[in-house]
Amino acid sequence: MEKKRETGEILEHMLLEEIKIEEIEFIKPPDEWDPDLHQNESYVPPVLIEEKSKNEAGKSKKYSLLAHHRCLWKAFAKRQFTMRVLVVHSNVHISLAHDSIKNCSEEALLFDGLLRNGLCENRSRLSELLGYSRARITQILNILKLPLEMRRKLLLTDDISEFQLRPIVRVEDSKLQKEMFSHLIKGKLTGREMALFADENEKDDDQEPLKDIEDLMSEHIQLDESEEIQYEDNDDFKDEATSSDIVQQVYVYELLQLLKLRNANWEKDAEKKDISGIDMEFLKGIFSLRNGLYKEAVDILEGVIEENPDYAPAYFYIGKCFNLMGNPDSAENSLRTALELIPEEPDYLIELAIVLEKLKRDTEASTLYKKAGLLRRKPRRGDNR
Length: 385
Hints:
The protein is mainly α. The protein has 3 domains: 7-154, no CATH class; 162-217, no CATH class; 235-376, Serine Threonine Protein Phosphatase 5, Tetratricopeptide repeat (Alpha Horseshoe). Helices cover 55% and strands 5% of the residues. α8 packs antiparallel against α9 (174-187), α15 packs antiparallel against α16 (294-307) and α16 (294-307) packs antiparallel against α17 (312-324).
């Protein structure tokens, strides 16, 4: 998470309030928490929000803790009666609070508290305030889908990113989810490693035991070269497209043929092919992109992602838009999400390499160019650009 200001500078601008600890609702620390392990951490005033909703007795719920749990836990353990805290009341407080947060789970709690209590009317407004895309806001909020016990453990460390947690959030099987989380906590794995772990182990528990992450990273997941993909313009193909990286890319390629040479009648042609819903919205986004309306394209494609978080091409084209708008940091985030969903797509790799070059990360860019070149030597059908 990128911070615009140092903690010391943030503290200077904070208008702190004295609040009784008994008035604060907060997530209790996990059993393994030890106050002595965090004694050397810098003190940052906890971030609270005044709850607008009522409890069962019809009274206000007082305050909810959003960030800097470890500081409040230590005060609670010392039996302090009050604490000086930052209560978020306005847009000024939102910026200060957000700049002070380093823990991805606390960032999600901040976003949820702001939306729940009406300090931000919707995700679009929140994205404007923080300079995030709507898709990024959604990705961070998805952390709150994890079980409470996992989120309690996440509050112990600021070293785990939302990107590393993303594959765990998408897993529905609770046993696999716990296994993945355990590997993450012990090994501090990258998002890519977690994605590989999820892809390989999301199977019937009766079929085979879970593989170790080290075994997975030594394997190469490749499409069987003898497998031939047949394209048919029917609903069966559309269903299949959501379960196979290659088939999804072929389907997207076929969709984009409707926009070839800026076809003015593309919407009518799409309706004739029974294309509607999320695919039609995707095409509208690409049409805006190709006409230079990059901000409009991002808004449309982020709507596609909100409906289907696994729609990899939408992330790819959002990344292209941000790149064209001169925002390489946002472009990198979107492109890495696309590659998490479809890891071996050359176009995605090349676009990310271009972005990394703009960020002066030439070594990383060179590696991606080489990987894309090797993948393009394999016979592939379709071109999604």
